Each structure stands twice: as structure tokens, then as C-alpha cells.
Amino acid sequence: MTYASSLAPPFGRALCAMITPFTEEGALDLDGAQRLADRLVGQGCDGLVLSGTTGESPTTSDAEKAVLIRAVREAVGDRAALVAGVGTADTRHTVQLTLEAEKAGADGALVVTPYYSRPPQDAVEAHFREVADASGLPLMLYDIPGRTGTRIEPDTMIRLSSHPRIVAVKDCSYDFLGAQKVVDRTDLAYYAGCDEHILALYAVGAAGYVSTVANAAPARLRAVVDAFDAGDTREAARLQQRATPLIESMMSAGLPGAVTAKAILNALSLPAGLVRPPLRPAGAEARAALHAAYEALTAR
To answer: Where does pyruvate bind (predicted)?
Structure first.
């Protein structure tokens, strides 16, 4: 059973891992967040992930995370699903953030594998089950071992799929075979978390994508899945390939996605602002390369 052909994805198909705008003084820019969210939804995003990796979740407070959800909900209403990043290295803290996200109006919670402590798979599974049991929010598991040091192994995901509130996966595992195995054996909605995999995963039954690059070019990425849904696979491939230089510039040039996305948005005079330490803004050379890649994609 594939989401691309038969099921309605729980959070939409085209999701943006939205940056968290800050003011020049480094404070949360709620007005900017509302304007950016409205733009993203207006240009094809039917879901927004708040306070994820790109949203600089390690450097925002619990209170900032909650108020950001409320502000974005006010801006987009029911036009888009809101998925709140709640993952931490501490199960109790993750449960607390999930409950606060639910109260603030989130539609779902993005839960990353606990990092640094590197729990074994039985502990990983217990962590996710405890979070899922704690609230009424559906969960999107976030598999990104390059940052956490720990996989959510395919067999663990298959077991977790039996939980009624574990409904989706954001996949940054770079394990295409493992992803296909879970897509084939469960009804979990798989979302490509790496922009270069949007079409590849979608073509084998993924539900859609959670994209950092969508901060800069939301309509261009939405066009990839729209073309595939229309049956024009050649056009979908062409559009994915056209986005490759920007994807590479933003995601594989040695800078985190929060840094590169904010560099482009600032250049376009869109809400973004500074990144919080330990991240640092992109330098002049990187900004020029990012802007050139953006212009090349959007000029035609």
C-alpha cells in the first residue's frame, strides 16, 4: 500500500522544515514567523514543521517553542498541518514538550531519536512508545543517525507501527533499502527528509517530504510531487534535477541548513534574521554561491 497512490498523508505531502526567524537582537520574531509561514503555505506547503533541526530547536526555549506554534497557527489557520519538533535526549522532557505542543495547537509531533546517550534499540522503542502514550498527538519519528548517533532500525519501526499514534517517519537515514522495507511492510507515512531523495522515495510509495530547501523555493519542490501525481514522471525527474544545484548548495556545502536557508531568505528580504550560537551566519563567499544557485533555479 503506497501513500502516493491510495492513502491521504497524515500531514500533507509538501512540508517545509521552517526556520525560526529571530530579530537583530536575537529574540524570537513572531511577526516574521507569521509572515514566512503565510508565504510558505501560499506557495504550496501543506504542512510546516516547527522547531526541528532547521528551526534551531537546540537553542530555543520551551516557552519559545510553544509561543511559536500559537503564532503560526494564528497565521495559517487550518490551511496547513503544524508538526512540532519535541525531540530531546531526555524522555521526560520530550513528553513534557509533546504535551505543551498539543496545548499550543500542533497537529502532530516530530520526535527525534534520543541523542548522545546512544540507547540500544529496545530503549529507543520504549522511548517512542512512552511519548506516544503521553498525549493525543500523532507522532512522526525522526530518523537522522548522522546527528543522533543512533538509527531507528527498520525492524524497530515495523514494531512501532502497531501503535495507533505513531503514524509517520521523517527519513534522513540514507538507507534506501531500509526505507523501502518499512514502506512495504507498514502503513507508516514516509517523508523524505533529504531533499535529494524527494522524488526517489515518493516514487516507491513515500507520503511526501519534509524539506529545508522549501524555505527558499517551496513552489519548485511542490512541483516535483505534483508532476509525479499527474503521471508525468519524466517532468518530475526534470524538476528534481533542476533543483539539485540549490539542494547541493544548501545541504552539502559544509554549512547547516538553518544557516544556508537564512542566508537566502535574508538576501530576499524575507523573515529570517540571525542564527543563534554556536551556529554562525554564512560568509560572503557562501552567500554569493547560495544566491547564484537560487537565482539559477527560479529565473525560469
So the answer is: 54, 210
Amino acid identity at 162:
S
Per-residue pLDDT of the chain (300 residues; tens, 9 = 90+): 346 456 789 999 999 999 999 999 999 999 999 999 999 999 999 999 999 999 999 999 999 999 999 999 999 999 999 999 999 999 999 999 999 999 999 999 999 999 999 999 999 999 999 999 999 999 999 999 999 999 999 999 999 999 999 999 999 999 999 999 999 999 999 999 999 999 999 999 999 999 999 999 999 999 999 999 999 999 999 999 999 999 999 999 899 999 999 999 999 999 999 999 999 999 999 999 999 999 999 986
Cell 519535541 maps to which residue? 86
Please list the helix, strand and coil fractions of the chain in percent, rounded to the nearest 5, in that order: 50, 15, 35
> Do 257 and 214 contact (CB within 8 A), yes or no?
no
Q: How far is CA 273 from the centre of its chain?
A: 20
83: annotated binding-site residue? no
User: Cell numbers at residue 297, please?
Assistant: 533555479
Q: Is 23 annotated as a binding residue?
A: no
Active-site residue list = 142, 170
